[in-house]
Amino acid sequence: TVKKIDISGWQVRGLTDQTYTGKKITQSIKVTNGKRTATVKTSYKNNINVGKATITITGTGFFTGRIVRTFKIKKATQKMTVISIAKTVKYSAVKKKAQPLKKPIFVLKSIGKLTYTRVKKGSSKYLTVSKNGKISLKKKTPRGKYKLKLKIIAKGDKNYKSCSKTVTVNVQVK
Q1: Whole-angstrom Cα distance, residue 17 to residue 31?
Q2: Which of 16, 91, 103, 149: CA 20 to 30 A from 64?
Q3: Phi, psi torsion values for 149, nearest 5 degrees
Q4: HSE-up of 171 (CA within 13 Å, CB side)?
């Protein structure tokens, strides 16, 4: 019989921290003693979500023994997109009462709670925004062109970082 070689004290190369993908994360590793590379099989625990994942490496063929290592899965960057659509409001309507704007912005692929903050510089005093993103034109806004600059923040979650985008909403009162 052939004596099997124990790999339990050998080096594991290629084990790196990873970023969340939504799928099971595996590693491309080599187990070596500096002279020889072992044939191994791997199994994983907690290798999908952000946190600490475990890889168990077991020798196969001429190799025996086990090595257990951990690696981190880090939060991914969101791919949030914000689209602004210019709006026109009739002066006759805004003369009587404040006018909410129908869907002047669309937020796509955001993760986590959204917050909307008015950016003072570059924003008209005639436009308002609520915490939940509802934009309105104040009552008796004169005819003209107005801008509202907004910072939109998506809070993220356990697997995604928070993300922010700045957008300008253009409104014309005719």
Answers
A1: 17
A2: 16
A3: -95, 125
A4: 30
* pLDDT per position as a tens digit, 125-142: 999 999 889 999 999 999
Kindly state the tokens that stand for 72: 């981190």
Q: What is the Cα–Cα distance from 10 to 15, expressed in whole angstroms?
A: 13
Instruction: Render pLDDT for 65-86 as a digit per residue (tens, 0 to 9).
Output: 999 999 999 999 999 999 999 9
**E-assigned strand segments in 60-139:** 63-64, 66-74, 81-84, 87-89, 99-100, 105-108, 114-118, 127-129, 135-137
pLDDT(156) > 80: yes
Does residue 60 sit in helix, strand or coil? coil
Contact partners, residue 161, CB within 8 Å, separation at least 6: 75, 76, 77, 78
Amino acid in position 164: S
CA distance 138 to 56: 63
